[in-house]
Amino acid sequence: MRCRITAWDKEEGRQVVEDVLKDAERRMKKAVEHVRDDFAAIRTGRASASLLNRVYVNYYGQQTPLNQIASIAVPEPSLLVVSPYDKSVINEIEKAILASDLGLTPVNDGNVIRLPIPKLTEERRKELTRIVRARAEEGRVAIRNIRRDAIEDLRAFEKEGEITKDDLHRGQEEVQKLTDRYIAETDEMLKVKERELMEV
Questions:
Q1: For the segment 126-139, what is each residue's pLDDT rounded down to a tens digit?
Q2: Quick check: 83 and 73 in contact, CB under 8 A?
Q3: I need a labelling partner for 33 at 20 to 30 A (CA). Which of 25, 63, 183, 191 fits?
C-alpha cells in the first residue's frame, strides 16, 4: 500500500488522465463527423455535391465512390451535373443514382448526367426533419457513451492507484466539458440543417 505519492507519480497520474481525455476527444470528434456526414447526405431543396457522397458505382467490378470517377458541378441552385471521367461508365453511374435513397431522377445524355433537385413538399420536409433529429440524437448518445467509458477508465486507474482522487475529480470535470462541447456542436449542426430543410 502506498503511503505517499511522489512528484514522479503525480506527473505520471496527470499523463494517464491526459491520455484518457485525448482518446475521449478523438472519439467524440469522430461521432460529430459521423453526424455531419449523415446530414450532408440528406437532401434539402438546394443542390449540393455532398448529396452524392454516399453513392457508390460498380466500376469494373469494384464499388467505387462516385466522386472518384466523375466531377460533380452545381451550375444552379436546383441542379447537379455529373461528368464521368470515363464515358463508358455513365450507365453504371445512372444505375447507382437510381438505386440510392436520394429520390433523384437522372437525365443521361450520353456525356453527362443532369440531376434536377425537386422542391421538397411540406410532408417530405417534416419527414427529413424527423430523420435529422434522430441522427443528431444518435450522435448525442454516442458522445455520452464515450463520456461513460472515459469516466469508467479514470475510476479504474484511481482504484489501481495509478491516479489520485484529485486526478479522478479533475478528469471527470474535463470529460464533462468535452461532452458539453461536442453535444453543443451537434445541436448547432442540427439547427443549421433544420433551417435548410425549412427554407422554401
A1: 888 998 999 999 99
A2: yes
A3: 63
